[in-house]
Amino acid sequence: MALRKEEITRKLLHLFALLMPAGIFYLPRFGVHDAVPIGILAFLTVGSVAVESLRFRVPAVQKIFHFCFRHLLRKEEDKKVTGSTYVIAAALICSLIFINHKHISFMVLTLFILGDAIAAIVGLSIGRTKILGKSLEGSSACFVMCMILFYAVFPYLPWVLETWGGKAPLLVAVVSSLSITIFELIPLKVTQKLTINDNLAVPVITGGIMLLMETIMSLA
Question: Which stretch of DSSP H or E encloses residue 188?
Fold first, then answer.
């Protein structure tokens, strides 16, 4: 599949999603109550779900939705919930589960948003080796992007790696990057008919893995 202009635009606009992890992590650092970013994400999640539900049931809403966002939609999203709704829901879940570990929410959401974007762009542009409907090249780009974030971006962002003294342990970086890469690649099937969307599951799963590693290291 060739890389289309629409896909590039879609992924570039997804960069605005980085405002969610930034808000979860940094707003409380500047005195904003934890409930504020959580409340905003809850509002956005409910609103997105409501719009998705209405557009499937009310043709007029679907028409307006298509007029506004048709250049960002994939074909399968005509009749399915869009990836952006799942990402917002994932941010809300992370903000609740990791409320006392906001750096984890920040990192896993940032890793997933940017890792998924580069995986799609590289996979669609130069991907040749197919794996489970995606590409080895795209997955490799995702892993590399995650490692770059751990060692060339996160150390220079205020407070993000404070828990680890300003530098992420290699094991945490590698395992977290592999988690993002592998679970973004492998369909997360609960039953034969039920598959959890990767936009929802991957940040939460990786956050859980990161928290487990952090807890074990703190006890060692």
Answer: strand 188-189
CA–CA dist 101, 111 (Å, integer): 16
Q: Do 122 and 116 form a contact (C-beta atoms < 8 A)?
A: no
d(CA 135, CA 184): 11
Nearest one of 17, 5, 213 to 116, comparing CA atoms? 17
Assess contact for 178 and 143: CB atoms under 8 A. Answer: yes
In the chain, where are the structural domains located?
5-219
By residue count, the chain amounts to: 220
pTM for this structure? 0.92
pLDDT tens digits along 2-59: 556 666 666 666 778 999 999 999 999 999 999 999 999 999 999 999 999 999 889 8
Going from the C-alpha of 93 to that of each of 17, 46, 55, 161, 203, the distances in angstroms are 15, 13, 24, 21, 9
Angle at 200 between CA 195 and CA 206, to 5 degrees: 105
Cβ-Cβ contacts under 8 Å for 117 (sequence gap 6 or more): 11, 12, 14, 15
